């Protein structure tokens, strides 16, 4: 996959990693626009190719009373407004076959959640839209096995596919990132490291997922050092009151410093 295949993406010639970044879920128009505006400002300054991320709905929830969204079309229209306002591409995840065509009318990249990446009909539906497809590696899958998920997309005559590592289950309530998987998966697709979801602590007795945001820079640095093509970071200006995944999101106020450090590391690594 070439970055040029993602509509509206900027700074393609900067030789930097690309970034998928935004809130976990679209909670409303004001919050989405506020986050997008700040991330656009930072990525333009640092010449980072940027895709705004926001889930139009959340289907994988621990409890039935967990926040799932503000309404599908309402959230998708907000994603379209973000794209049009800031002239940037957008990505959202889909959960059902019918979501593929619906979301494809509003966003540039369709993301397959980790728990669903073995669902052939869902992957094929995303591929057949002709959009760029981001396949999240299942927490239960080996890096090598993701080649088959990629092939499902390319067999649909869609070469625009990338893979995102979001950690591997380690016991019941923790995840680890096996950095050996980055070069393995780069053999068949560009690889993104989902920094914030890799730091989740799932299956808590409260039914609310925990996290280790204090380790975000540690994981991100390791990804950049090991030549990851892109980074995935969820961010919010008020993580403590975010309606989804607040425990592992990066506070928006820390994003510029983090990305500044990472771009400096990238330049050093590329010069070696």
From TrEMBL:
GO terms for biological process: lipopolysaccharide biosynthetic process. SUPFAM superfamilies: Aldolase. The keyword Isomerase does not apply. Pathway: Bacterial outer membrane biogenesis; lipopolysaccharide biosynthesis; Carbohydrate biosynthesis; 3-deoxy-D-manno-octulosonate biosynthesis; 3-deoxy-D-manno-octulosonate from D-ribulose 5-phosphate: step 2/3. Signal peptide: none annotated. Keywords: Cytoplasm, Transferase. One of its GO terms (cellular component) is cytoplasm. It is an enzyme of class 2 (transferase). InterPro entries: Aldolase_TIM (IPR013785), DAHP1/KDSA (IPR006218), KDO8P_synthase (IPR006269). Coiled coil: none annotated. It is found in: Cytoplasm. One of its GO terms (molecular function) is 3-deoxy-8-phosphooctulonate synthase activity. Its EC number is 2.5.1.55. The keyword Transferase applies. It catalyses: D-arabinose 5-phosphate + phosphoenolpyruvate + H2O = 3-deoxy-alpha-D-manno-2-octulosonate-8-phosphate + phosphate. Belongs to the KdsA family. This is 3-deoxy-8-phosphooctulonate synthase.
């Amino acid at each position: 996959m070439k970055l040029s295949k993602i509509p509206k993406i900027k700074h393609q010639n900067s030789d930097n990693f690309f970034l998928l970044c935004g809130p976990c879920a679209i909670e409303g128009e004001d919050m989405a626009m506020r986050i997008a505006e700040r991330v656009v400002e930072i990525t333009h300054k640092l010449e980072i190719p940027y895709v705004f991320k926001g889930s139009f709905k959340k289907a994988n929830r621990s409890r039935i009373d967990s926040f799932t969204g503000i309404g599908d079309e309402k959230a998708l229209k907000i994603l379209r407004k973000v794209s049009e306002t800031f002239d940037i591409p957008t990505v959202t995840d889909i959960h059902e076959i019918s979501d593929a065509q619906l979301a494809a009318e509003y966003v540039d990249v369709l993301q397959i959640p980790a728990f669903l990446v073995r669902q052939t009909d869902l992957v094929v539906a995303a591929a057949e839209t002709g959009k760029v497809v981001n396949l999240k590696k299942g927490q239960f899958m080996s890096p090598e096995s993701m080649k088959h998920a990629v092939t499902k997309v390319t067999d649909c005559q869609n070469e625009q596919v990338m893979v995102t590592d979001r950690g591997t289950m380690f016991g019941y309530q923790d995840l680890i990132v096996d950095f050996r998987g980055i070069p393995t998966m780069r053999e068949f697709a560009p690889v993104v490291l989902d920094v914030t979801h890799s730091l989740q602590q799932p299956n808590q007795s409260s039914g609310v997922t925990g996290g280790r945001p204090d380790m975000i820079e540690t994981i991100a640095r390791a990804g950049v050092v090991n030549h990851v093509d892109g980074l995935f970071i969820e961010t919010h200006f008020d993580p403590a009151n975010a309606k989804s995944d607040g425990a592992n999101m990066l506070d928006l106020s820390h994003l510029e410093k983090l990305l500044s450090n990472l771009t400096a590391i990238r330049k050093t690594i590329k010069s070696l």
